[in-house]
Amino acid sequence: MNTDKQLDRVLQAADDGLPAALDRLMDFLRIPSISTDPAHAGDVQDAARWLRDELAGLGFDAQVQQTTGHPMVTATSQPGAARDLLFYGHYDVQPVDPLDLWDSPPFEPRIEDLPDGAVIRGRGAADDKGQLMTFVEACRAWKSVHGTLPPGLKLLFEGEEESGSPSLRPFLRDHADALRASLALICDTGMYSDGRPAITTQLRGLVGEEIIIDAADRDLHSGSFGGLAANPVQVLVDILSTIKDDTGRITLPGFYDGVPELTNALRADWDSLGFDAGEFLSRVGLKQPVGETGRSGLEMIWARPTFEINGIAGGYAGDGFKTVLPAKAVAKISFRLTGDQDPDQIRAAFRDRVQSMLPADCRVTFHAHGGSPASRMNIDDPAFAVAKSALTEEWGREAAFIGAGGSIPIAGDFQQILGMDSMLIGFGRDDDRIHSPNEKYDVESFRRGTRSWIRVLAALT
Amino acid sequence: MNTDKQLDRVLQAADDGLPAALDRLMDFLRIPSISTDPAHAGDVQDAARWLRDELAGLGFDAQVQQTTGHPMVTATSQPGAARDLLFYGHYDVQPVDPLDLWDSPPFEPRIEDLPDGAVIRGRGAADDKGQLMTFVEACRAWKSVHGTLPPGLKLLFEGEEESGSPSLRPFLRDHADALRASLALICDTGMYSDGRPAITTQLRGLVGEEIIIDAADRDLHSGSFGGLAANPVQVLVDILSTIKDDTGRITLPGFYDGVPELTNALRADWDSLGFDAGEFLSRVGLKQPVGETGRSGLEMIWARPTFEINGIAGGYAGDGFKTVLPAKAVAKISFRLTGDQDPDQIRAAFRDRVQSMLPADCRVTFHAHGGSPASRMNIDDPAFAVAKSALTEEWGREAAFIGAGGSIPIAGDFQQILGMDSMLIGFGRDDDRIHSPNEKYDVESFRRGTRSWIRVLAALT
């Protein structure tokens, strides 16, 4: 039972507590919890403990739960809510290379006052430490007024989101009863590109794959062997050049099985957003959309499957020049999935393509790096309408139901393993440079994000 | 005037001096003179000074001559020869990465006793420090018997052979009169693959090129931008996959202008060598020749032009997985040239291909890394017959005139700038692993190589 008066007091408490909340976030951001780099395993543990201690200090029943990989942090508040809710975020971060492109050290976060407002600069500021802390700080403000935490909350914080979440599905299965709730709240998405508040209702899936092609048992002299010996970099290049055709369509057999066309309703909604692909690209120094001919910009990033080469390496690419015929070549590639595309089937079709083009003297090794189907939420749950008006009220702009190009496998996992839908609300901006040097999060996103969760909690608990 | 008796005494002196000669070579190999890595510039200077001091100690008039790059070491003996000779070698070495593939540190050379005989293990043992020292030690043995050095010798040692020789041509132009001789002796090649002594009479040329493709002004999240933003790695891959067709022929316009077919005589000579491509490849863990259909193995490595990708890099290829859409991609490629192919024309044709396939949002930067035409020697110079019988006598096997797949631009430079031919005599083996981890040089190559030069000098000076 929350009166408007109580709500206003909680919102005010959040504003009054902003400086202290930012200090806490800075402490969190100083921990280099890069989950994909084994050298940082200890830092990931430190970040988990830091978060557990914060939650316990707020009165949550909080634990660090070890897995075979990085740990999960779980917490619960007292029962007694109209409906219980599971909140999800991740405390691990992306690698920081190329380090020399950072204007300040990625793990020495700082507040920068820019013409458009203050920003929090540092790896993880937006993805996802800053975002998950908006919910924690909402709970803190709530308790400072009500004396108790919002009831019926379950919190789940993951430390492997940026490294394929190997431990997540087993953990969800082992703790299904403890984690299941009426709805999941996920804070790992952004607002619409013009800053309009948004609830993400569909996400692309992901298939990540690493390919290693080996040929000779050593690097060779390209003069002595060139023209006679297989070059694994050439083999890799020839294979990767066949995955897409000239129209940007992916050529793997059966790849488009289960890819839906946009409904007219959704197409109309998205058209109304007035997305300008050229303007969107201009923020990163580009201007010409590539990709499938005959598709709109939003379709390409929200509703069409893609193939990207995320990394490639082979031979000598350092200073100077080395006339070597390389012994091996490596690529990391990924597919974004939509609709009902089957990650396993697409991974198999890709591996078949590689195998079919492999010359006699080459051997290939595959490593799977995460696979998850796309997700579409059931927006008939009244919580979506409630949240939409809460966001509209907080930001003073009509909130939108949007799609997202990124993959948040957890949403699909919640559906498949816990049988529950997710409401994806986030406050990131397109210029937050997540996964890139100089990542930032607007202080305004952090402040209004906290206030937005207060409104949502007031309406739902 | 040399009698057989004197010759035998010099040969004996070389054998007696072998242990001390190996000690000197070890000192030389301990200097990490990697010319392509700016971090090793000081080591290259040290190697030059070491060599100058050795030569001065032998009675040569020797100098270290600085250039805008790494220095040249030059030396002369007293006049009075039947014909003066210019000897060339290079004291710089290849980079050593991947370092973890070395069984012992590359710059801690050692003698290893193997079933087939002792070898000198270390970077530069064969390419080219060990080879050039065979000539220096031949001069030492000569002087110990004659009391004087072989007359009419000019020595030129380069420190940039493994990094495109940027200073060489200007140096040759500036010192043409001092360097010109009746014939150049170059010791940077190998014996025929079965260990038969050989004089290399034709060499492939080289065009080395680095391509850097830039797209967005930062690495992007492949979820947020994938499908809409240009991926420079994909662009690079698509371009490099078009350079060769399915038959292994290079598709650049005019590429084969000036490529000669083998003369029937030469084809017959080479056929008589009984080259077995499968056996040759089996030494490096391969078995299937690739390359142009319908060409013999020796043709492919000695007499046909090639295209190789020597290195490629872009995006994230480290541990784990990073769903990044890279901002840039880099490749290092090279062409091997034959006959009268024009390096400049071929570089231009390659750059045209890249430019023609570049999408609107990508920019390309090119860096030239060396360009030299192929070389064919005039084997009518009687010195070739004299050297052939000297080699035959020393090794007890009929010496052969052969080709070489590698590029030794100096031979072409001597022809074009000094108007003199070169006689390429070397004692390397196909399993010396030059340019690769665990490079070695047979002690027998070092010993008989020294003795071979003694015989050649006795016959020519």
From TrEMBL, chains A, B:
The keyword Membrane does not apply. Residues 203-361 form the Peptidase M20 dimerisation domain. Pfam families: M20_dimer, Peptidase_M20. The keyword Cell inner membrane does not apply. InterPro entries: Cyt/Met_Dipeptidase, Peptidase_M20, Peptidase_M20_dimer. Keywords: Hydrolase, Metal-binding, Protease. It comes from the Bacteria. This is M20/M25/M40 family metallo-hydrolase. It comes from Paracoccus pacificus.
